[in-house]
Amino acid sequence: MSAESKALLAQESDAEPLAERSEVDGEEVVPATWESVKALPALQTPDHGTLICERLVGTSVVGIIIAFCVGCVMLTTTDVPEASAPKASMCRRIIYLEAAIALYCLFTLQYGSRGVLQRSPQACFPLPPAVADRLRAALRRSSTGDVEEPRPPSLSAAMEMAVEGLHNVTDPDPDGRGVYCVRCLLWRPADGHHCSTCQRCAQDLLQDLA
Ligand SMILES: [Zn+2]
Ligand SMILES: [Zn+2]
Which residues cross the membrane (predicted)? Predict the structure, then answer.
């Protein structure tokens, strides 16, 4: 068994998972480490086809709107009487600025991190009991060679299969950890969501427009 798997097995073996780590019945709980995070099954693959389509559509729509607005202003502000020239020039500057801001927002939304939550020892642990039980069982089965057919191609795949069918776990404490996503295997804020295109959890819907 790899060091990462051992680190994961050492996690929370008897812990009350939603409780503070240091207050679990006075027992010392092994703090979560990056080793434990690495032992978790791999994150799911984003739907790249849909992502590319959504980006292309978004970029095209915004591009066409910008081109239309800039074109209209250009057409109506050229060949104006001399008295109106300063106003025309001001209008053009405003529309260029607006176009620049729109492009900046577009590229930030489409290619920025979009509030995507990243795995870390703090984000992934403590595991809710249902998740911990399934992962530990999969690890033990793989270490003893007692793996049911069809045999998963890797330990990560075996663990991924182990958490299939589980439902997200909500921390009953409203000021607690929020919701545990059983696909990303991390805690996200209660108002966060899992995007089925990106296959990642995001802080909130507005930050995930890709
Ligand atoms: Zn998304
Ligand atoms: Zn998720």
Answer: 56-75, 95-112
Compute, in angstroms, the gap from residue 97 CA to the centroid of ligand 1: 29
Q: Say how many Å lie between the CA of residue 167 and the centre of ligand 2.
A: 11
Residue range 13-51, pLDDT digits in tens: 444 443 334 334 444 556 788 988 988 988 989 999 998
Domain ranges of the chain: 3-45+115-207, 48-111
CA of 197 to the centre of ligand 1 (A): 5
Ligand 1 mean position to 195 CA, how many Å? 5
DSSP annotation string for the chain: --HHHHHHHTTTTT--TTS-GGGSTT---PPP-HHHHHHSPPPPPP-HHHHHHHHHHHHHHHHHHHHHHHHHHHHHHSS--GGGHHHHHHHHHHHHHHHHHHHHHHHHHHHS-TTBPPP-HHHH-SPPHHHHHHHHHHHHHHHHT--PSSPPSSHHHHHHHHTTTPPPEE-SSTTS--EEETTTTEEE-TT-EEETTTTEEESSGGG---
Q: What is the ipTM of this complex?
A: 0.96
